Amino acid sequence: MTLHAKTAQLQDRASAPLTLYNVTWPGPLHLVDIVLTGGESALSPAKGQFMTCARMQVDDTERGLYASSRSGSTCHYLAAENRWSITIPDGHSDDQIREDLVDFLNLALTESWRRLGWVPLHAASITSDTSCALLCATAGGGKSTLTASMIRRGWKTLGDDKLLLRKDKSGDVEVAALLHNFNLHPRTRDWFPEVGDLTGLPPYSPWTEKRKVTIESIWPDSTATSSRPTHLIEVARRPDARGLKLAPLPHSSVLPLLMRQTVIPGHPAWAGQIMATLAATAAGLKGWRLEIGDDAYEREEHLAGLEELLQ
């Protein structure tokens, strides 16, 4: 991916979120150009017939994808040229610029991953020599803390937030890492003193107190780049519960849970490719629901049941 920005400020703002992807890819690669400009966009808002997200709508046009944000920024993907053109109106606030660039850059990355056969997942993972569990939860549901707690018991991780999934030519399913960073709340130090004082780091977004830290800087030799998924765990925080409570997840719930971890566009071909990958993955996963009480990490033995199940 190459960036060409009208101003140095736009160049820096667009480069910042891309530097978070700190896992080296061996290839194959899908090379695209991204051109960032300012000014006023004369284009109409997208209708969302390809995809609708919280702050962005996307259409599928004859020339490629066209997206617009609620603030008036626009993004056009020219498929024949592998080029994304992003226009940020002059006068936008810093928060608006950051939001729009993150959304459009995520769209560009997602489309590139799809063209390489990958399905992006919003999930964490823990992996060993014989097992790999995908951890699914809503925002703030406890994926990062659970992942950290298992790392301390000798497990490794592909990441705590964003993963890629694909079915290879032989039909085997692989999950791969994108970011070897953790999003940790400063209170994590209460359970894991080795994370240190995180309050000096800036929050990684205006909507959370979590800080972004490099996993290896806290737990060396704790990351992996790919694995074969064996389990799917629905993680739920329960302040009224004690320790960790495990219950089997009906197999009929595994595929719907996986579907909620990605965005499926309205384009039939793309939707079909994604669903085929998710269905093949779900067929080989054992599903569990894990309820986490507020005292779950006060005693190491609380994690023994989960570890035994996965092994």
Notable traits:
single chain; 311 residues; alpha+beta; Rossmann fold; 2 domains; seven-stranded mixed sheet; 7 helices; 19 strands; 24% helix; globular
Give me the CATH architecture of the largest domain, please: 3-Layer(aba) Sandwich
Radius of gyration (CA) equals 20 Å
Uncertain runs: none
Helix content estimate: 10-25%
**How many strands in all?**
19
Q: Helical segment tally? A: 7
What features would you describe in this structure?
The protein is an alpha+beta fold and 311 residues long. It has 2 domains: 2-115, no CATH class; 119-310, 3-Layer(aba) Sandwich (Rossmann fold). The protein is built from 7 helices and 19 strands. The protein has helices at residues 8-18, 94-115, 143-151, 215-218, 254-259, 268-283, 304-310, and strands spanning 2-5, 33-37, 51-52, 56-60, 65-69, 74-78, 83-87, 119-122, 124-127, 132-136, 156-159, 162-167, 173-177, 181-184, 211-214, 226-227, 231-237, 244-248, 286-292. It has a 7-stranded mixed beta sheet, with helices on one face. Strand 4 (56-60) and strand 5 (65-69) form a beta hairpin. Helix 1 (8-18) crosses helix 2. The longest helix is centred in the middle third of the chain and has 22 residues, at 94-115. The model has no long low-confidence stretch (mean pLDDT 90).
Quick rundown:
The protein has 311 residues and is α+β, with helices and mostly antiparallel strands. It has helices spanning 8-18, 94-115, 143-151, 215-218, 254-259, 268-283, 304-310; strands at residues 2-5, 33-37, 51-52, 56-60, 65-69, 74-78, 83-87, 119-122, 124-127, 132-136, 156-159, 162-167, 173-177, 181-184, 211-214, 226-227, 231-237, 244-248, 286-292. The longest helix has 22 residues, at 94-115.
